[in-house]
Amino acid sequence: MPTTPWQERAATLRIDGRAFIDGERLDARSGARFDCVSPVDGRKLAEVARCDGPDVDAAVGAARAAFEDRRWAGKAPSERKKILVRFADLMLEHRDELALLETLDMGKPIRYSRSVDVQLAQNCIRWYGEAIDKVYDQVAPTGEDSLALITREPVGVVAAIIPWNYPMLMAAWKIGPALAAGNSLVLKPSEKAPLTSLKLADLALEAGVPPGVFNVLPGFGQEAGRALGLHMDVDCIAFTGSTRTGKDIVQMAGQSNLKRAWTELGGKSANIVCADCPDLDAAVAAAIGSIYFNQGESCNAPSRLFVEASIKDAFLDKALRMIPDFAPGDPLDDATVMGAIVDPVQMKTVLGYIESGKSDGARLLAGGRAARVESGGLYIEPTLFDGVEASMRIAREEIFGPVLSVLSFTELDEAVRQANATPYGLAAAVWTSDIGKAIRTSRALRAGTVHVNQYDNDDITVPFGGYKQSGNGRDKSLHAFDKYTELKTTWIQVG
Ligand code: NAD
Q1: DSSP code for 210
Q2: How far apart are CA 102 and CA 118, in angstroms?
Q3: What is the largest CA-CA distance in the chain?
Q4: Average per-residue pLDDT in the chain?
Q5: Catalytic residue among 191, 264, 308, 398
Q6: 424 Cβ inside 6 Å of ligand 1
Q7: Hey, whose CA ends up nearest to atom 14 of ligand 1?
Q8: E strands of 88-137, at which residues?
């Protein structure tokens, strides 16, 4: 029986799992479907269209036709702006439904789906809508006899493939700049969390995005995803997901039409806390809050904590007192701060890493077990290992779960060396009162984002992306337009 207002709403929620192609909700051409199961309680939520090659052909064809007849690209930027702002307004009008779909689909607490995911996603669509009639092209400083224009044009048909950890927000990071710039888009959400992407397509159509401009194909990576990666009529592929799949995406671009391939991939971010940290309580709160937020399923989670040896006991003492606040609860309860793990595969992966930490000799100081088993859902206790060595798997590999690995250091240079000794380079942090040390360390850290004396700041105005095998793309900010536009030079003879 439902016991919270959100559970009551969930019991009556109607979910349409059909694909969205050329402005219409459609079954997969093969008729195939897959079950969408909630990690909250193991309940089947819906049957979802299992799209594959023929559906990809149809969606790419619709996107190409829309691009060629300029029903969207040909609109004045101020017109596209109006429609995208209306789209964002509709997301706010449907805030509760979007939040509920997100929570049921991938398990994050409803308080965050509603206040973080819907809020940031609608803000992203709105921001790019608002931006597009304010960006100017350039005139080159040539001689009098000629005029050279440097202009940006939409790249054409964009395919976006996204993961399941922030499904709506990752979709918005692609939809916002790609549509604002005038492209047509085919979005493939993760098979583990397709529901909000499909709802966004309904809302975009209602807002006035013309049919064919924005298509959503739920399905599996090896089927719909691969067909998009290899498609000869996709001009650009914007991928967010694991480094392993990112490498495949780049290869598929090379094997097919050399489509522009942008990758935003995994991370193993280092958080370095020096003994002269200006506020130890704030450092502990950020370290703990950031690793357990979203059940640890965040690409930029600070999963490696380097603490200077002289303050490690004090740090751990405070951390261990805070950890019980993150005990997993019912994601449909407004009080819950840590929810469910997305699916049994991820659950097994995370528990496997916990076992490897134990067998490699790290000290398990908190958590380490499955929780709320009686719910029928998938939950893991917030877990902390001390005494982690750089060689251990839990210090080297992306776990993507609520597991913090604590390492200690005596020389900052050595901590920085270890922080950089990873194939990843998404985010990093340093805590110190010494401004020179902060600047030197932030320069030395090989990561797309470096935080100094905080970890949580984020804003649509700044780029987000990685160095090294964390990928080559940047989402957010005006820089994201670089991915979805071609740069054209036009020479005009004047004299
Ligand atoms: P994943 O690579 O397994 O899947 C991501 C997407 O790719 C899904 O839609 C999947 O269906 C599709 N896919 C899988 N195999 C494919 C193939 N062969 N061809 C085409 N598409 C394929 O990743 P995931 O488990 O969904 O997501 C977790 C990963 O995403 C983590 O590594 C995380 O760090 C990363 N991530 C990165 C960012 C960022 O901005 N850098 C943001 C969020 C998540």
Answers
A1: P
A2: 9
A3: 81
A4: 98
A5: 264
A6: no
A7: 221
A8: none
Please name the residues in contact with 128: beta carbons below 8 A apart, sequence gap of 6 or more.
Answer: 84, 176, 177, 179, 180, 480
Q: Which residue out of 124, 236, 277, 299 is catalytically annotated?
A: 299
- Kindly give the distance from the C-alpha atom of residue 171 to the centroid of ligand 1, in angstroms, as a whole number: 12
Return all residues near 308 (Cβ < 8 A) that are at least 6 apart. Answer: 273, 274, 275, 408, 409, 410, 412, 415
CA distance 129 to 89: 12
Q: Does residue 253 have its Cβ closer than 6 Å to ligand 1?
A: no
- Strands (E) located in 92-192: 138-139, 146-154, 157-161, 184-188
Is there a contact between 60 and 231 (Cβ–Cβ < 8 Å)? yes
- What is the distance between the alpha carbons of residues 466 and 469, in angstroms, rounded to a whole number? 7
- Helices and strands counted in the chain (H then E): 16, 23
- Say which DSSP state 479 is in: G
Interior CA angle at 244 toward 184 and 178, to 5°? Answer: 15
Q: Is the CB of 349 under 6 A from ligand 1?
A: no
Burial 153-180 (b: 16+ CB within 10 A, else e): ebbbbbbbbbbbbbbbbbbbbbbbbbbb
Question: For 325-350, how does the pLDDT look when each residue is reduced to its tens digit (9 = 90+)?
Answer: 999 999 999 999 999 999 999 999 99
The residue to mutate among 105, 106, 165, 244, having the most atoms of ligand 1 within 8 angstroms of its beta carbon, is: 165
User: What's residue 3's pLDDT?
Assistant: 79
> Is 299 known to be catalytic?
yes
Tell me the CB-side half-sphere exposure of residue 211, using CA atoms within 13 A: 8
Question: Which atom, in ligand 1's list, is nearest to the CA of 466?
Answer: 41
d(CA 376, CA 112): 22
- Which tens digit of pLDDT belongs to each residue from 354-364? 999 999 999 99
Contact by Cβ (8 Å): 339, 298 = no
What's this model's pTM, rounded to 2 decimal places?
Answer: 0.98
In the beta sheet, which residues pair with residue 452?
430
Averaged pLDDT, 28-48: 98
Residue 313 Cα to ligand 1 midpoint, Å, equals 37
Find out whether the beta carbon of 448 lies less than 6 Å from any atom of ligand 1: no
Could you tell me the two tokens for 354?
């916990």
| Alpha helices (H) along 238-375 | 243-255, 280-292, 312-322, 344-359
